[in-house]
Structure formats: structure tokens, C-alpha cells
Design a protein that fits this description.
single chain, alpha+beta, Aminopeptidase, 27% helix
């Protein structure tokens, strides 16, 4: 997709971000509860304040992804994702297993990567994940971890094809890691 714009989240993106995440998870194999999205109402606090990042992907194309628009003349938010310093995540209430490496300096946790269901498999997620890795590297991170559910086989294959290796499978969760270039 040549007309993608990947940019920093801004406050007016809050509702479109929530809608993309909600649509993607409802279409997945995950046993989904909308309350799972609640942290995405606070992107500034959850991602930027601790030293992380959050991006949105826009396209001007019309189609099913237009449900992420508040107005017909706005670009559609079609994908989202961010990262947080793992040290911050450990200090917060986010469920991070204790078996992850104790040396979290230089490690970020990639979170909330979601692509509108009608655009999955079109390279949008790859472009976003590459941009997040580049941004994390610019901010001094050298390693990334992320978590998905083993029931989400498509997501597991997506991360594995992008060089993420399995760290552990526990309680239906699969944790991945990757050295950032």
C-alpha cells in the first residue's frame, strides 16, 4: 500500500485508535472483552510519559476501514501500535511475567499492534512493526518483547515471519523477543 502515512498519535486519534483495536480483536480468535481496550483511552499516559511511543497508520482509501473515521473527508486510521520501556511495564499493573529477563534496560515491550481486518495481509502491519522497531532503536532500545495469545495463530505467524522468536508459551500466552538493529 503506497499511500500509507505512519505518524505519531495525537489526542484526536483516541476514538479511531479504540475502534481499530476493537475491530481487529473482535475479528480474531481471542476471547475478547471490550474492557481490554481501556488503557488505549490514555495513550499519552501509558506510552509517551514513560518514554515509549505510539503510532497510527492512515490511508486515504475508502472501503471497510472507513468505519475508523469520524468524518468522511478524514484519512482512515487503519492500524495502530506502540511500545513502552519494559522497566515501566514492570513497575505498572500490566501483567508481565517474572521470568522475563531481569536486565530490562534497553528492552521495550511492543503492545497494541492491530490492523483493520479488511487490510490484514496487505503489508500494513509489517510497515507499522518496522517503523516501531526503528523508532525504538532511535530511542536507545536494543531488544523488544511482545505477547499474543496462542489461539491467535495468524498473529503468531506474523511475528515469527518478522524474526521474533518464542521466549515462552504459558497459560495460553506466547511471548516473543527480538534483537533490534
Amino acid at each position: 500500500m503506497d499511500d500509507l502515512v505512519i505518524r505519531r498519535f495525537v489526542a484526536p486519534d483516541t476514538d479511531p485508535v479504540w475502534r481499530v483495536h476493537d475491530r481487529a480483536l473482535r475479528a480474531s480468535a481471542m476471547d475478547y472483552d471490550p474492557a481490554y481496550n481501556r488503557y488505549l483511552r490514555h495513550v499519552e499516559r501509558e506510552f509517551f510519559e514513560p518514554g515509549g511511543w505510539f503510532s497510527v497508520v492512515e490511508t486515504g482509501e475508502h472501503g471497510a476501514a472507513t468505519t475508523t473515521r469520524d468524518h468522511a473527508d478524514e484519512p482512515a486510521v487503519v492500524a495502530i501500535g506502540g511500545f513502552q520501556p519494559l522497566a515501566y511495564v514492570r513497575d505498572d499493573t500490566v501483567n508481565v511475567p517474572s521470568w522475563l529477563p531481569a536486565a530490562v534496560v534497553g528492552t521495550c515491550r511492543i503492545r497494541s499492534v492491530a490492523v483493520a481486518p479488511d487490510l490484514q495481509g496487505e503489508g500494513v502491519g509489517t510497515a507499522l512493526l518496522d517503523r516501531l522497531a526503528a523508532r525504538a532503536t532511535e530511542r536507545g532500545f536494543t531488544y523488544a518483547v511482545l505477547q499474543t495469545y496462542t489461539s491467535m495463530e495468524q498473529a503468531c505467524r506474523f511475528y515469527e515471519r518478522r524474526g521474533y522468536t518464542t521466549l515462552a508459551d504459558r497459560d495460553g500466552e506466547r511471548w516473543y523477543g527480538k534483537r533490534l538493529d
